[in-house]
Design brief:
- Helix content is 57%, strand content 10%.
- By secondary structure, the chain is an alpha/beta fold.
- The chain folds into 3 domains: 137 residues, 3-Layer(aba) Sandwich (Rossmann fold); 64 residues, Helicase, Ruva Protein, domain 3, CATH 1.10.8.60; 122 residues, Up-down Bundle (Zinc Finger, Delta Prime, domain 3), CATH 1.20.272.
- The strands form 2 sheets. It has a 5-stranded parallel β-sheet with strand order 2-3-4-1-5, sandwiched between helices. Strands 6-7 form a two-stranded parallel ribbon.
- Helix 4 links the parallel strand 2 and strand 3.
- Helix 7 packs across helix 8.
- It starts with a helix and ends with a helix.
- The mean pLDDT is 93.
């Protein structure tokens, strides 16, 4: 079975290195993080010029990679060979290249740390190479984090930095940044650096100050305004979006609203409407269940289905289909009008 990125990171921080790492998956954050840890910690800086080789998949083939891996280190305990963008290796998906790598993995040079950073895809699990990697190398799968798991991921990263945040703040970051783990980590690092231990709880005000996400004008607040049928507040928010479309792209706002109203539809259809059951069904923190229940009271079943239709139409128009000369702001205003009336 593939090992978790977290367990590999723990070993690397303890200076435990394996002969072969194969890092693969749609989420590049952990692949880059593990590569960086090996690149910066496997060798002292004074040894890197002779014993660390970094190459890119598009520039080499498997033969070149393995010839480098079979060299002995110069006056050092180990050498490091890192193949970045390994998915671009021309012969990695060919039988010959896979056979070469499979043979090496079965008898690797103990003094070499060989790393493949294979981003945005995975090796075909049916191939012999996948089975060899699973058994004899450190195979790491890095899948995309699902939207509903983002608040938990953010909370965990906060804990690593000695920070805390309420569910609403976690949701604010998740809704506005999305499943871009690298950006989320960078923004949390920025918060940590700016606070310098003076405050440990991250509030929406701090997010606004250091991340640039408005605590009052964001898609999370727009959802609340719609549920409350607060026409004035909803229009203020979409005017704010219209004034800065680069920071508030229509396609992302529509996607967030679509996710919200899809969950509202699930609540309508649920037979067990207890907080615990709905939290499990919607895959959300129980803190937010009351928001979805309130939404079902504002938007009956038939209206919710109609709103999902409006959102599908807006999504198509946001991508330039049947949009005419309408701007993003105009499409958003029309969408909100249809939802509220």
């Amino acid at each position: 079975m593939p090992v978790s990125p977290e367990s590999v990171i723990k070993d690397l921080k303890e200076q435990k290195f394996a002969p072969v790492y194969f890092l693969q998956g749609e989420e590049p954050y952990y692949i880059d993080l593990i590569c960086d840890l090996i690149e910066k910690n496997a060798l002292p800086e004074s040894e890197r010029s002779f014993n660390q080789v970094i190459m890119y998949g598009k520039d080499v083939d498997m033969g070149v990679v393995l010839n480098n891996a079979r060299r002995f280190p110069m006056m050092a305990q180990r050498q490091v060979v890192i193949v970045k963008e390994a998915q671009e290796l021309a012969d990695l998906n060919k039988e010959e290249g896979q056979k070469l790598l499979g043979n090496y993995i079965q008898t690797p040079l103990p003094s070499t740390v060989l790393v493949f950073a294979h981003k945005h895809k995975t090796i075909d699990g049916r191939k012999p190479l996948a089975k060899i990697l699973d058994k004899m190398a450190v195979l790491v799968d890095s899948p995309k984090v699902r939207d509903y798991k983002l608040p938990d991921w953010i909370s965990g990263y906060f804990r690593e930095k000695g920070l805390t945040a309420k569910p609403s703040t976690l949701q604010l970051l998740a809704e506005n940044i999305g499943a871009d783990l690298s950006r989320l980590a960078n923004e949390i690092d920025k918060l940590s650096i700016n606070l310098q231990g003076k405050q440990t709880e991250i509030t929406p005000e701090l997010v606004q100050q250091y991340v640039g996400i408005s605590k009052d004008y964001n898609v999370f607040e727009l959802q609340k305004a719609l549920v409350e049928r607060n026409v004035l507040k909803a229009n203020k928010i979409i005017q704010y979006f219209e004034a800065d479309p680069k920071s508030n792209p229509l396609v992302l706002n529509v996607a967030a609203l679509f996710g919200f109203f899809t969950k509202v539809l699930l609540v309508h259809a649920a037979t067990d409407k207890t907080e615990k059951a709905l939290a499990a069904l919607l895959k959300v923190n129980p803190f937010f269940v009351k928001d979805y229940l309130a939404a079902t009271r504002t938007f009956p079943f038939g209206k919710t289905i109609q709103i999902i239709g409006f959102l599908r139409e807006a999504d198509i128009r946001s991508k330039g289909i049947d949009s005419g000369n309408a701007t993003e702001g105009e499409i958003m205003k029309e969408l909100i009008f249809k939802i509220l009336h």
